[in-house]
Write a structure and sequence with these properties.
By secondary structure, this protein is mainly beta. The protein has one domain: Phosphatidylethanolamine-binding Protein, CATH 3.90.280.10. The strands form 2 sheets. A 6-stranded mixed sheet has the order 2-9-8-4-5-7, covered by helices on one side. The chain has a 3-stranded antiparallel sheet with strand order 1-3-6, with no helix packed on it. The longest helix is centred in the last third of the chain and has 8 residues. 31% of the residues are buried.
């Protein structure tokens, strides 16, 4: 019996850190504060757009949104360092900035987890630039074909 397409799941990796391993300093506030490269595999058939949500659930004041991007073209195979795919839109993060804000755990706060949540949608969201996380979550509801996550860590300075 042939394997069905359902066994192939959406996946993202980074060539600069492995799952549950440290994110290199150049991608944090201690370095160049640019996004790490991300490689995308197994985008499901019927995908119209992709969504990326990077957040820190260990933040001192609650889950902190570092990067919000939607309407990423489904043909996108990678997101290079310090870049946004053509056609993608970015929203406001919790630093009130549009775009990527690197990990920056406060001194003495231990190791923080940074999750890159990735979604394949059967539609485009067509939200205006600088929309917020609530807008994206509401708009993608009922349209998720598949999702995956990549998790990295950053240790706070002592």
């Amino acid at each position: 019996m042939a394997e069905s397409d359902e066994s192939v799941k959406l996946e993202i990796i980074s060539p600069v850190f492995r799952e549950n391993c440290p994110i290199p300093p150049q991608y944090t506030c201690r370095g160049q504060n640019v996004n790490p490269p991300i490689t995308i595999f197994n985008v499901p058939k019927g995908t119209e757009s992709l969504v990326l949500i990077m957040h820190d659930p260990d933040a001192v004041n609650g889950d902190f949104l570092h990067w919000l991007m939607w309407d990423i073209p489904p043909s996108t195979e990678s997101i290079p360092v310090n870049s946004v795919p053509i056609g993608a839109r970015q929203g406001l993060n919790d630093a009130s900035q549009s775009g990527y804000t690197g990990p920056c755990p406060p001194k003495g706060s231990g190791t923080h987890t940074y999750i890159f949540d990735f979604y394949a949608l059967d539609t485009t969201l067509d939200l205006p630039d600088n929309s917020g996380i609530e807008d994206v979550i509401k708009a993608q509801k009922g349209h998720v074909l598949d999702n995956c996550a990549l998790t990295g860590t950053v240790e706070a300075e002592t």
